[in-house]
Structures are given as C-alpha cells and as structure tokens.
C-alpha cells in the first residue's frame, strides 16, 4: 500500500484585518497625542505601560472592511517605565553603575572566541564590583573617618557641631572611645548598602520580572501546526557563507530579556562586598591598635575576624567571576543558598567587627586620619589595570572580525568603563571634600593652613586637581569640531539651494538649514570625544595616583619649594578642582531632577538615559532598572496574540528609541508570527548609535538577519536628525530598507500649497511627511492584498469609512 501523501501546507490566511502598533520614543507621549484623538481606551496593560486605541476602534478587527485603506491604530505607551515623580532623579546617583553596565554590552563582534568573550565579561563585572566598593568606601570615609574619627576626636571641630557632642572624645562618655564611635558610624554605610540591595530587589519586581514568550507560544500562534518551520529570513542554503553567518542573534534568545538568576547572584555578591568594605574599615582601625604595645584586647581576635573577611571576600569575587548569563532558555532557577548565605555571612562578619571595635580600650586615642588613603589608591590602580586588560581583550576580538562602523575600533567598551570609573571618583571625591569643608568651617582641610582636621585622603585632592587640566585638554577637540561644523555648513549652501530649485535662494533660510544639518552630523563624532576623554582620564588618573603616592601631600603642599609658577598653578588647580567637583555633583543632581519634571529637558538628555537603561543589568545589579525587560515582552506578547487570533497583517511602527524596542520585540517573535509582521522605523538610532556602540547585538550581521527574518522593513531618516539615521544594510541586491534622507523642511519658502513657513522638524513628527503614509501603505501591500471593495451595499460601507477612515491611523508616536 502506497504511503499517504501529506497535504501541502496551507498558505497564511489573510482576514483583511490590519493593525499598526505605534511605539513612542524618548520623553514619552500620551495615548491621545499618539492616536490624534482625545477619546482613547486602554486595551491591555496597567498604569505603567499599556496599549491604547481610539474609542471607536476598540473592536476594529471585527470589521476589517472599515479599515481597507487605513489600519487599526494602537499605541503602546511605556513612558511610565522611565519617567515619573522627581524622586526618580535619585537614580542619577547610580549613573556610574549604569555606565559600566553599558560597557558589558559593547563587546565587539566575536565568532568562535568563547574564552575571550567570557574574559571580557569577567573583567567588566570586576570593574563593576570595584565601583560598589568605591561607593561604600566613600561612605565610610565620610561617616567613619571625617565625622566619627577626625571631627569627633578633635574638640575644636566637635564643639562647633552640637549633634556630635555625645561622640566627642573630650566628653568622656560611653561613646567617646574611638572604636565605639566607629561602630556607631558604621551603621551609615551599612544602611546605604542595604538601601541599594532593597532598591535593586524592588525595581526588579516592578520593572524586570515580566517573563518573555515561552516556547509553547509557538503552538499558540499556530494551533493547526500548518505554518512553516522557518521564517522568511532562514537561510536557504547552509553551504552559502553569507547564509551561514545569519545565525539566530542574541536578541532572539528566549532568556535574553530575563536575567533573574544573574541579577540575583550579582546582587548577593555586591551586597556582600559592600558589607565587607564597611567591616574592613572598622576592623582595620581596631586591628592596628591591637597590634600596638599595651592594647587591652588580644590581637588574635582581630586576626580571626580578618581571616574570615578575606575568605568571604574571595567567595564574593568567585561569584562575580562565574559564568554570566544563560540566554538560550528562560532561566527561572535561583541560587537560593548563595543569595541567602553570602550577604548574611558578610553582615554577620560586619556585626562581629562592630562588636570587636566597640570593646573597651581606654588607652585608644584617635589622631590624624584612618588609613583610607591605601584603600583609594588600590582601588584606582585596580580599576586602571582592569580597563587596560579589557582594552586588550576587546582589541583582540575586534581584529578577529573587524567592522568599519564599530566605535573606536572595538575600544568603545573599555572607554565607557573608564568613564564609569571617572564618574565614580568624581562623585565620591566631591561628597568627601564638601563634607570635610563643611565640618572644618572656615578652614580648608588638607591644605595645612587654618584647618582643624586632617581632611579626606590626599588622592581625592589630586584627582580633583586634574579636572581643570582635563577640561583644558577638551578645548582642543571641541574647538576643532566647532570649526569643522561651521565649514561643513558653508559647503552645504549650494547643494541645499539646488535641492529646492527653482525656488529663489534665501541666504538666511539656507544658512539655517545647513547649520542644523551640520550640527546633526556631530553625533557621528561623539565616539572620538569619548575616546579622548577616556584616554586623558586614564593618563591623568595614573599621574594623580603617582603624585599622591610619591609626595603624601595634596598638590598645593607637594609643590612647596618649587618654582613660583608651578606652585601657583598647583594651588589653583587644587582649589578650582575641589569646587568644580562639588559644584558639578550638585548641578548633576539638580539637572537630573529637572529632567524628570520638565518634558523638554527630559527629551534633551533622555536619549542617553534611555540607552543606558535599555540593557539588562548584566554587570552591575545596582544599576537603574531595565525598562526593556518589561517593554519587549509586552510588545512581543501583543503582536503574537493579535496575529494568532486574527491571522491579519501587523505593522509595528517605532520612533526613535521606540524603534529599538520594536526591533527587539520582533526578534523575540515566533517564526509564524514574524511572517505576518512588517517593521516601520523612523528617526531610528538602531544603526547610528546601537549598531556602532553595540556591534554584537545591532551590528551589520544581526541587522541583516532581522531584515531577512521579518516579512518587510522600511526605515525613514532625515539629514537634519541628530539621532536617527539609515540602517546601512549592504547586500546585493539592495534590500531597500532605507528611505531617505527625507526632505526637511518640506518647503524652502512660501508656496501655494504651504503658504506659511514650514518648520525644520529634525527628529520629530515624521508622520507629517507624505512619504510616511506612502511607505506604510507599501508595507501593508507587501504583507498581503487588501480586501476588495464591496460593489453592493456601498452606501453602508462608505458611511463606515467616512466615520472611521477620515482619521489618520498613525498619530504622533514620537516622544
């Protein structure tokens, strides 16, 4: 008997229903602005992130004949994930953690270099751990050294601060002994570490706990099992070298947007490291005293606790060095014993250190300062060495698979990691110096002139002194860019007038358009500014460590006896840097708070913040929460559910940062759902920013794979847009993804059709360009034919179309 021949697979059914899912960009937008209608209804979601429709479109897929020319519009609003009340400005204090987390994702493209890739991740996580130790050490420097040790141990300082009276060494109270003062002050940095742990745990539950699509969702999208096993982007020939490169990208892995296990493990290690840092400060002072002659406490007790501290620290470092993320599956496992016992053990050791330091030592007198100098020097040296190792690994990976558009030839990650260390040093040093100045009153700690306390470690003064030098060095590239931009704008003039010919030239109008276009091109020069700042920071930081180590004095005192110009320059750099570091820190916090309250300010700096919080917390668990771990599963689930229930066409339309979310969500879709989806991006930084800085995830190969896996894709961009740009897919034949640069402004002067001056839109309002509607219609045609118009009953249908189709389905999706 002949075997039965299986029936051919059914082609995808098209019900005629079409949906446009709008995703806004930076700064957020209301559903009413995105949909162009004050009457909206929430379809699904909550107050933080949700999908909205116009009220009359609430059940649009049930009447596809009404939307023959325009798709049903939905707006996904995710602004609640990145903006809110002013208290969120406190997240800016975690900026160094966010920046070093970015460095983890900036690894160059690598193929077959698993050991090098793993080494890169280990080094980044060690740099992140050093930043946690640096923050905790700065809190210890303020609370333990400046307040409890120096000010409370000096009568002239404690008498000025009445709230320190019970700690004063001259009061003779129970708390007057140095060890007990340190034990009490240790609660401040310990509480800071506990707060960081709480915020990391709480934000995970609120923002990042959404699970991605399960493998079983494939069956939900294809209940009959008739769809093809591979989407349109799957390689047809495994022997084709180009097809072989199109392996599934990292962003399509089921566990990419669900790093619960790694974040929990890193949180435990960083929390333990913070508690151990506080314990080391307390134990260091007590152990040094106990090793002197005449101590009333046997030193063996301190040695046992110090040994336990070293052992626990080794375990924390081992946890950091373990394998990072497992993305091939959604990892729901949690290392319960590790998460419970490692922070608990560190906290227990801190408690033992506090009890040991609080043991009565009547002969102990505090003088000078604690030995924080060695701690800060070792931290600075270790961070510099780790960044150098990271640069060597990144450069070796880049040489294996060079991509011309990759930032700084693969050194973008090490440069950003160096900036994270510099930010951490500036913020911690600024707080320590400002507190020392406040405690000392009219004196200036560290200068030896009228000060009553020793002040913070001299390394912090040296680091502050190099800030004016760094700013002076930055003047050179800044002036170069200004001159180059002005020349470029002048050269653009004839081309702009020819573009708008035969309209009569207008010099003022031409200069304005040229200036905006030339300024928008500055975005492509940002990597070199970052590289210059990072290299200068590394060199000047090394000089600061060497100067503080060799002299043991602040720059103003270290140059006493030198030539008058040298001494005066050193003193000016020290005083200027000290105030710059404090003023910059306050200005940073105030600006951040304004950005969360003021929409215009939020749009200005929002792109940098949203890039930083787009990526999961894979290097630092105390970084601000990743909104994409909520937004990407939301979008993927919505698209998957809609295509499964309606079998209709879907366009996901993303502007600015919303285009990156849209692409990431499309990558997460099962193949059957992806076949029904078209991607429309505009003002998109997906290649100009993400492709250059994050080549392993948005480089040429992943973007080419995205284009081949999604049904169709169009990208719109303008020359006046400082953020968005082309995708730059280079294949033969040309995939035809990029459309642009679009004409901006639409009219050079006054015309009959546009009698008023047209604005230069730049990054906003792409929907105002007629090309937008044209390309969206073309995408719908590629996804499937429209339903034919009904010859009969036309009056009824026309009424529906007039009621529904008269409104544009794509409102303002820009942020």
UniProtKB/TrEMBL annotation:
Entry keywords, A to Z: Membrane, Transmembrane, Transmembrane helix
Acidic residues biased stretches? 215-226
Question: Which parts pass through the membrane?
Answer: 89-107, 119-139, 182-199, 268-287, 299-320, 341-359, 379-398, 410-432, 460-483, 525-550, 577-596
User: What InterPro entries does the record tag this protein with?
Assistant: AB_hydrolase_fold (IPR029058)
- The residue ranges flagged as biased composition, category Low complexity, are 804-815
Superkingdom of the source species: Bacteria
Q: Which residues form a coiled coil?
A: none
- Key word Membrane present: yes
Q: What are the boundaries of the region Disordered?
A: 211-245, 783-815
Is Magnesium set as a keyword in this record?
Answer: no
Descriptive protein name: Integral membrane protein
Question: What organism does this protein naturally occur in?
Answer: Streptomyces cyaneofuscatus
């Amino acid at each position: 008997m002949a075997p039965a021949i299986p029936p051919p697979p059914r082609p995808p059914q098209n019900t005629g229903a079409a949906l446009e899912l709008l995703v806004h960009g930076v700064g957020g937008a209301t559903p009413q602005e995105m949909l162009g209608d004050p009457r909206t209804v929430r379809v699904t979601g909550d107050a933080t992130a949700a999908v909205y429709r116009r009220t009359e479109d609430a059940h649009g897929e049930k009447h596809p004949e009404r939307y023959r020319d325009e798709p049903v519009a939905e707006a996904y609003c995710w602004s609640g994930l990145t903006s809110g009340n002013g208290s969120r400005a406190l997240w800016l204090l975690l900026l160094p953690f966010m920046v070093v987390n970015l460095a983890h994702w900036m690894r160059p493209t690598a193929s077959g270099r698993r050991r090098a890739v793993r080494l890169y991740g280990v080094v980044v996580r060690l740099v992140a751990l050093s930043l946690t130790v640096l923050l905790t050490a700065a809190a210890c420097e303020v609370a333990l050294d400046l307040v409890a040790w120096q000010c409370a141990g000096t009568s002239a300082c404690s008498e000025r601060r009445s709230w320190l009276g019970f700690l004063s060494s001259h009061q003779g109270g129970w708390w007057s002994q140095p060890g007990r003062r340190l034990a009490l002050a240790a609660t401040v940095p310990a509480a800071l570490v506990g707060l960081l742990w709480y915020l990391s745990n709480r934000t995970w539950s609120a923002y990042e706990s959404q699970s991605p699509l399960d493998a079983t969702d494939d069956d939900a999208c294809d209940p009959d099992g008739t769809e093809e096993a591979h989407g349109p982007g799957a390689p047809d020939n495994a022997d084709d070298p180009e097809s072989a490169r199109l392996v599934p990208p990292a962003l399509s892995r089921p566990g990419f947007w669900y790093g619960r296990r790694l974040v929990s493990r890193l949180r435990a290690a960083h929390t333990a490291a913070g508690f151990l840092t506080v314990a080391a400060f307390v134990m260091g002072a007590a152990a040094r005293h106990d090793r002197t002659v005449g101590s009333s406490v046997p030193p063996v007790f301190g040695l046992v606790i110090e040994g336990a501290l070293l052992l626990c620290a080794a375990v924390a470092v081992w946890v950091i060095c373990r394998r990072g993320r497992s993305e091939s599956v959604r990892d729901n496992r949690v290392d319960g014993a590790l998460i419970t016992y490692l922070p608990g053990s560190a906290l227990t050791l801190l408690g033992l250190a506090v009890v040991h330091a609080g043991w009565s030592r009547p002969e102990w007198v505090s003088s000078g300062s604690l030995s924080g100098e060695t701690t800060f020097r070792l931290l600075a040296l270790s961070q510099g060495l780790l960044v150098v190792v990271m640069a060597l690994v990144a450069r070796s990976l880049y040489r294996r698979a060079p991509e011309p558009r990759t930032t700084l030839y693969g050194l973008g990650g090490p440069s950003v990691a160096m900036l994270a260390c510099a930010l951490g040093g500036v913020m911690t040093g600024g707080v320590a110096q400002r507190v020392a100045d406040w405690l000392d009153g009219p004196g200036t700690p560290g200068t030896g002139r009228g000060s009553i306390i020793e002040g913070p470690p001299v390394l912090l003064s040296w680091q502050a002194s190099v800030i004016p030098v760094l700013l002076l060095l930055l003047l050179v590239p800044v002036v170069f860019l200004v001159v180059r931009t002005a020349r470029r704008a002048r050269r653009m003039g004839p081309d702009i007038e020819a573009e708008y010919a035969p309209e009569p030239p207008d010099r003022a109008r031409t200069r304005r358009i040229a200036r905006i276009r030339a300024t928008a091109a500055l975005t492509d020069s940002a990597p070199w500014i970052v590289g210059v700042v990072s290299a200068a920071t590394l060199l000047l930081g090394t000089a600061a460590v060497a100067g503080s180590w060799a002299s043991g004095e602040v720059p103003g005192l270290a140059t006493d006896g030198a030539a008058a110009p040298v001494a005066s320059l050193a003193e000016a750099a020290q005083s200027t840097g000290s105030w710059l570091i404090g003023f910059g820190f306050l200005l940073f916090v105030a600006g951040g708070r304004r950005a969360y309250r003021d929409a215009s300010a939020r749009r200005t700096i929002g792109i940098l913040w949203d890039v930083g919080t787009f990526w999961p917390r894979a290097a630092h668990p105390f970084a601000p929460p990743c909104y994409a771990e909520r937004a990407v599963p939301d979008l993927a689930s919505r698209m998957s559910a809609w295509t499964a229930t309606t079998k209709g066409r879907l366009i996901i339309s993303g502007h600015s940062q919303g285009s990156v979310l849209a692409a990431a969500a499309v990558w997460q879709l099962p193949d059957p759902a992806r076949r029904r989806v078209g991607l429309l991006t505009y003002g998109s930084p997906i290649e100009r920013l993400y492709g250059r800085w994050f080549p392993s995830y948005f480089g040429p190969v992943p973007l080419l794979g995205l284009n081949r896996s999604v049904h169709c894709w169009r990208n719109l961009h303008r020359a006046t847009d400082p953020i968005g740009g082309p995708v730059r897919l280079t294949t033969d034949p040309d995939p035809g993804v990029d459309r642009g640069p679009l004409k901006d402004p639409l009219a050079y002067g006054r015309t009959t059709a546009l009698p008023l001056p047209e604005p230069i839109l730049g990054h906003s309002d792409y929907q105002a360009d007629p090309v937008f509607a044209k390309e969206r219609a073309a995408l719908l045609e590629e996804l499937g034919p429209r339903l034919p118009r009904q010859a009969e009953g036309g009056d009824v249908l026309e009424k529906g179309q007039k009621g529904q189709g008269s409104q544009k389905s794509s409102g303002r999706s820009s942020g």
